[in-house]
């Protein structure tokens, strides 16, 4: 059910737990217990990032979870309780998202976020970490694996931006209309954002609840200005430049994708798989863009196997 090795032309579909050993099934079920999560702020050069720590320290490498645009650490809420024991887990709200500070002109490009992740690792005294990234978070993971290989032990790319195939047409139109957007009521912009995000879910109710969480930081006139900063920073030239270096990634890489993503199609997943040596590819059926939310057990099972590599 999984494609491994990179370069194989055939894609694979990952059915929930289809490739997992029985003992891993039991471990995932058992791990659905309440997990102690410690939320904290850390100051990085005058900007506070919010993160929550979970899991148990042990011999396993630390795990860093990165969300994308325009979401938050909320996207990982059902995956984190299922990660294997013995790993220090850090789940980040990137600058300008969730509970973290507003950017106030600070760099919120993929490179800017990646540089702050390195600063976060330094602050938390983490030498090397396995990076899990969704959407733009996957672009940050690619940057870290290429530009900071000594700090990156593994990467897992879930419905990730890559190459030139993003942002979506709607986001490009929003960027093109920014001179007008800055003067529109923030409630109008939020309505468009909500509608677009909802398309990333198969389950409408789940999507409705999560979208409420994601748009909350942007639900003021000041929040609209932050959203504009993020829109301006969405630049595919960053991932185009990274694309020429994907062949140099030595960190074990897992690629996971919702089969019906309306924003980032599975052709991107296959292209990443071809480009990154030794990568594995899992296409998750009946899921759109928000795979960590709609298939958390499948994602957690793949993470178990990825960490064991």
Describe this structure in words.
The longest helix is centred in the middle third of the chain and has 14 residues, at 110-123. The chain is globular, with a radius of gyration of 18 Å. It contains 12 helices and 9 strands. The chain has helices spanning 22-30, 110-123, 136-147, 169-176, 178-181, 186-198, 204-215, 221-233, 236-243, 266-275, 291-294, 296-307, and strands at residues 3-4, 38-44, 47-55, 63-66, 88-93, 129-135, 152-160, 253-258, 280-284. Residues 7-11, 15-19 and 29-34 have low confidence and may be disordered. Helix 2 (110-123) packs across helix 3 (136-147) and helix 6 packs antiparallel against helix 7 (204-215). It has one domain (3-166, 236-307): Alpha/Beta hydrolase fold, catalytic domain (Rossmann fold, 3-Layer(aba) Sandwich), CATH 3.40.50. It starts with a strand and ends with a helix. Strand 8, helix 10 (266-275) and strand 9 form a beta-alpha-beta unit. A 9-stranded mixed beta sheet has the order 1-9-8-7-6-4-5-3-2, sandwiched between helices. It has 309 residues and is an alpha/beta fold.
Topology:
Blueprint: E1 3-4, H1 22-30, E2 38-44, E3 47-55, E4 63-66, E5 88-93, H2 110-123, E6 129-135, H3 136-147, E7 152-160, H4 169-176, H5 178-181, H6 186-198, H7 204-215, H8 221-233, H9 236-243, E8 253-258, H10 266-275, E9 280-284, H11 291-294, H12 296-307
Helix pairs in contact: 2-3, 6-7
């Amino acid at each position: 059910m999984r494609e491994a090795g990179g370069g194989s032309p055939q894609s694979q579909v990952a059915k929930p737990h289809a490739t997992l050993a029985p003992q891993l099934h039991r471990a995932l079920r058992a791990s659905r217990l309440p997990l102690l999560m410690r939320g904290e702020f850390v100051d990085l050069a005058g900007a506070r990032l919010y993160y929550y720590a979970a899991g148990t320290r042990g011999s396993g490498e630390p795990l860093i979870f990165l969300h994308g645009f325009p979401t938050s650490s909320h996207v990982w809420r059902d995956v984190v309780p299922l990660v294997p024991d013995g790993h220090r887990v850090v789940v980040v709200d990137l600058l300008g998202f969730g509970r973290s500070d507003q950017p106030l002109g600070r760099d919120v490009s993929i490179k800017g976020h990646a540089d702050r992740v390195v600063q976060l690792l330094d602050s938390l005294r983490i030498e090397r970490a396995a990076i899990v990234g969704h959407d733009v978070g996957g672009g940050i993971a690619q940057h870290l694996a290429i530009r900071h290989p000594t700090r990156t032990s593994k990467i897992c790319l879930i419905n990730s931006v890559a190459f030139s195939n993003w942002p979506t047409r709607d986001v490009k139109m929003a960027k093109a209309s920014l001179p007008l957007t800055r003067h529109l009521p923030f409630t109008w912009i939020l309505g468009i954002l909500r509608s677009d995000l909802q398309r990333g879910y198969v389950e409408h109710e789940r999507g409705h609840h999560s979208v409420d969480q994601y748009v909350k930081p942007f639900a003021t006139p000041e929040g609209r200005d932050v959203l504009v900063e993020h829109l301006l920073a969405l630049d595919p030239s960053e991932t185009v430049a990274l694309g020429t270096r994907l062949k140099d990634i030595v960190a074990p890489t897992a690629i996971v994708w919702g089969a019906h993503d309306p924003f980032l199609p599975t052709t991107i997943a296959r292209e990443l798989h071809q480009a990154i040596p030794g990568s594995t590819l899992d296409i998750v059926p009946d899921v759109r863009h928000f795979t960590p939310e709609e298939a958390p057990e499948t994602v957690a099972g793949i993470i178990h196997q990825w960490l064991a590599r």
